[in-house]
Design brief:
The chain contains no helices and eleven strands. It is mostly beta strands. The strands form two sheets. Strands 2, 4, 5, 6, 9, 10 and 11 form a seven-stranded mixed β-sheet that branches. A hairpin with a 4-residue loop joins strand 7 and strand 8 (77-82). The protein is globular. The N and C termini lie far apart (40 Å).
Length: 118
């Protein structure tokens, strides 16, 4: 069982920055792909950014150049640095850990609210 705890959400003005953190309950990054997802009211959950055990990253088009996913293996923590935030980035952001060798094994955090508004 993997536990994920997100933090760092809040209210920010357009153009501002936030850094989200996802603390995992153990050293999992070598066998779990980590991802940040978001879900806005009335919309489906969508992948924002991901990082593989090998360190490869991917981003959805609308956040490329503004968001950066990274991880600290010593701290068992994944980060999402979000810059130049826009109102359309407003959503609940979730962290996900997906086992790369066992299909269907995945864990979610509880989510953290990000609101971009003036």
């Amino acid at each position: 069982q993997v536990q994920l705890v997100e933090s760092g959400g809040g209210l920010v003005q357009p153009g501002g920055s936030l850094r989200l953190s996802c603390a995992a309950s153990g050293s999992i990054f070598s066998i779990y792909a980590m991802g940040w997802y978001r879900q806005a009211p009335g919309k489906q959950r969508e992948l924002v950014a991901g990082i593989t055990p090998g360190g490869s990253t991917n981003y959805r088009g609308s956040v490329k150049g503004r968001f950066t996913i990274s991880r600290d293996s010593a701290e068992n923590t994944v980060y999402l640095q979000m810059n130049s935030l826009k109102p359309e980035d407003t959503a609940v952001y979730y962290c996900k850990a997906e086992h790369v060798y066992s299909s269907g094994v995945a864990y979610w955090g509880q989510g953290t609210q990000v609101t971009v508004s003036s």
